[in-house]
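During the no-cost extension, the postdoctoral fellow (Dr. R.K.) reprocessed legacy sequence entries with the updated structure-token encoder. One reprocessed record is reproduced below for audit purposes.
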Amino acid sequence: MRGQLLKSTALVGAMTLISRLLGFVRDMLIARLFEVDPATDAFFAAVKLPNFLRRLFAEGTFAHAFVPALTDYKENHSQAELKGFIDKTAGTRALILFLLTAAGVVAAPLLIMGIAGFRLTKCPA
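Re-encoded structure tokens follow.
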């Protein structure tokens, strides 16, 4: 058991390191190829909010709260109750993400001003 935990920890650590290194390479390439201009600013503004939501709902708070609750259900409840718990959690999570997405679409100009500090304008055609 302890050896498996060490292997899993090392694997997650190694994959995180690779991800960080590839992100650094990506940032260097963007800086080299696109330099500093409004399009690059728009790219970074467009990526910031989805990354935050991914961290919150996929890797962050949700995962840290869900895994212990799922383990508890698996150990102390029947298979049907476990399935019901997973179904309710997935449904609630999907509804929350849908509402956040809809609110983000409606409030996009305000979000861009808040995140990036510039207003959306029409692109010259």
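Residues 113 and 119 are 6 Å apart (CA to CA). Residues 2-34 form the longest helix (33 residues). The remaining legacy entries will be reprocessed before the final report is submitted.
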